[in-house]
């Protein structure tokens, strides 16, 4: 009896909500320098990156700022081949999730990522230098107290790459901070 | 579980079923305008990308803070509801807290317009601007915050101001100079003791002190302002710290430059603080002058050295031997190429001119079809009379043997080839290739292909005498206009903006059309700011355009003060209301008064007639004037429109009705027969103008020809007469500083309806004399009764003394005749004179003294005129 009542209540709840409620399929969650960022985009970002809704929105804002800045440089525009490769890479990373996400959104995200990566390569990569002693120090930290540590010659290249990525990441973070400080960001609160 | 399953099925299938309705939840008045941005029809399937585009377009109008799209299950199937959330709009500005700044000032500072969207960042920007303005006024601790508060359907922008104390100057010192100088400089110190602290005023005062010291020979003087703020007392101690530097003077050793250049170099060193840049520029100017004089090997060095009481800057100039051009001519020119050097034998040999002529010869050879041409000047070193030979090294002459355009699709315009400069059989020119490439790029870009590439391919024959040219055009994808969104309008109707756009929805996005559209919108004069940005279009290969406009104030005021010989002192005031009804219509009222004249005009302008851009003016007026021979009042109206026949020629047609009453007539009674009657003009008139002058206020070249014909008819309620006049002026440069201006004017008129020729009503007659015609006479002074015929001619030489002053020598001749049949060129009155012009932004201020060349008994010998603007 109790379980029947519970099922009835659930059904009533669901039926009631189906009649009265509308499904919000789109809205503007934020605007960056007058450019709207839509809820559908934030949802795709959340699902792709595993973010909560707020973090997804902030990530979308960062990407929008970077993309707009990167788009000013004609050399940063990805070629058709680069865009195709970026999309394939994104679909691979998304795995089975890619099947359920709108194709146009994935293309847009892939193109945006490709533009940003290309721009970062033009602008920041030449500025990043990893000195030999930094690699040495990183090796010493990694291998400290480990008898089975691989020799330095084997690890140097990987360590240098990791340090380069780290430094590049720091530059990009500083760049995003700078972009944010100059941007006008407006949020729409949920209804 | 049945209903639940059904619900799940409905939910899953809703995205695939066509939409039964698309609803835009906005007021009825806005629905038609905004629906064009949604562009989703019932029956279409739900497409997230299409919905996304619609949301972006609605947001781009600037009217909404959010656009919520809901999918609801309706009776006939799924429905899509667009629910825009209006952005808060400004009702008025309010100030809360310390009322140290008015609402009007905040509105002007932030350019806030009633009805504009109140975004958070906009409010914050204005708050920051207000805070900066308060700091500039001495409220150093001012804090300004902004918020919106509902005010009915709109919102007030509320600025909360915590101004803090107004800082005042409580101590003022001048340091670093003698006691006497301290007293003198202290008089220049601002703000004064006890006055509100304004940083900019202090900076200006420091600069004034510095210039004072520089004028006294202390060219290296520096004045810095040191501030010391006491927050407890809200006081600022200002110290003007002076570093006077030594007393400086400039000297020259060796060969002496001209007095003018010496003065310019001194001025350069004074303004430049005797810095390294100023000293180097002095060297360059000296070298330039001596090079121009023919001293090819001039050497200029400078040094600074102490003297008693200061320092001196010495420029040591060693001019070297003077070189002049003994002879100048070309050599090695191929047939058909003519080169005449623009330097004359006997003139100073200037290396720069030689190089210019060499480059000119090379260009001439390239134009003649010698793409590998070189040219060199052969001349010896040293001074004396130096022969100069320009030797041409043309290389092979190349002719275009074949030319084609290679495009994957048909040419955008079939006559495109005809517009290109490259032609088969013509000389091959690299410059033509570049120009044609640019022309092709522009054509394709304007056909909607922004990524077009044009690469010229040139193949030469073995002997390099022929070139085959192919332009490879890769158009790239075509971009069409999806939607055009107009944003930012509060008063102006969208129609006014859309009718100026040359880009159209559904047509290619042409670059030239886009730029022309922006130009046309700017020319309306309605907008302070205008921008056109792009959004992705709904379909691939399309872009939507957002035309965002910030409207200017609808009402403007103008006032003026002036002087004219017939009016003496006069003042004017004009108020113009633009954009009536949001349709770019204009209403203006103009009032001018002087000791002798009063004029009132009310004018209405309609910019569009019958759906086309064509201006129509309606003017009602009333004027009163006291002329030498009579006074009159005149009132009436006129309807006027114009046609642009060519870039320099225009036709103006009018219909006028004017009623004139004359009184206080002082001309002899025999001269005045019907003139005591009121005169009425009613009829059409036309003017045609051809104007090639470079500047209407101060022309330096070109010409102006104007012809005017007026017909008044009894059938239309007026007196019957015809009046025609022609005026022509031309301006030609005689030398680099002298200009010859010539003018002629002929006027003919005839009254009808009388048995014998009769003069026109008094106010309608022609008159001569005054600051804009025969200058040896006062206004109307040739014959105060006027006449039906007029002949006038003037010649004037204008000499520029410098950029500000000019002299003039002129002669005027002419006369007025009672009737056209009385015109006698042997009976012209003449005057001549001299004048001075002072050039202002409003035209030259002119003082002319003219004397009669044929003075008659009872007439004054001469006349002085002061006026603004040239006589013609």
Comma- or semicolon-separated keywords:
heterodimer; A: 191 residues; mainly alpha; 2 domains; disordered N terminus; B: 872 residues; alpha+beta; Ubiquitin-like (UB roll); 8 domains; 3-stranded mixed beta sheet; 37 strands; 20% helix
Low-confidence stretches of chain B: 1-15
Q: What count of structural domains of chain B?
A: 8
- N-to-C CA distance of chain A: 38 Å
Q: Any idea how many domains of chain A?
A: 2
Main β-sheet, spatial strand arrangement of chain A: 3-2-4
> What is the beta-strand fraction of chain B?
35-45%
Terminal CA distance of chain B reads: 97 Å
Secondary-structure class of chain A? mainly alpha
Mean pLDDT score of chain B, rounded?
Answer: 91
CATH class of the largest domain in chain B: Mainly Beta
What general outline of chain A do the C-alpha atoms trace? elongated
Beta-strand percentage range of chain A: 5-15%
The CATH superfamily of the largest domain in chain B is membrane protein fhac: a member of the omp85/tpsb transporter family
- Relative helix content of chain A: 55-70%
- Largest interface, counted by CB within 8 Å of the partner chain's CB: A-B, 25 and 29 residues
- Please summarize the sheet with the most strands of chain B: 16 strands, antiparallel
> So how many helices of chain B?
14
CATH architecture of the largest domain in chain B: Beta Barrel
What would you note in describing this structure?
By secondary structure, chain A is mainly α. In chain A, 69% of the residues lie in helices and 8% in strands. A three-stranded antiparallel β-sheet of chain A has the order 3-2-4. The radius of gyration of chain A is 23 Å and the shape is elongated. Chain B is α+β, with helices and mostly antiparallel strands and 872 residues long. Chain B has eight domains: 2-86, Roll (Ubiquitin-like (UB roll)); 90-162, membrane protein fhac (Ubiquitin-like (UB roll)); 168-243, Roll (Ubiquitin-like (UB roll)), CATH 3.10.20; 247-318, Ubiquitin-like (UB roll), CATH 3.10.20; 340-393; 399-474, Roll (Ubiquitin-like (UB roll)); 480-551, membrane protein fhac (Ubiquitin-like (UB roll), Roll), CATH 3.10.20.310; 627-802 and 810-829, Porin. Chain B contains 14 helices and 37 strands. Chain B has a 16-stranded antiparallel β-sheet with strand order 22-23-24-25-26-27-28-29-30-31-32-33-34-35-36-37, with no helix packed on it. Chain B is globular. The N and C termini of chain B lie far apart (97 Å). The model of chain B is unreliable at 1-15 (pLDDT under 50). The chains are: A mainly alpha (191), B alpha+beta (872). Strand 1 of chain A pairs antiparallel with strand 2 of chain B, so a sheet runs across the interface.
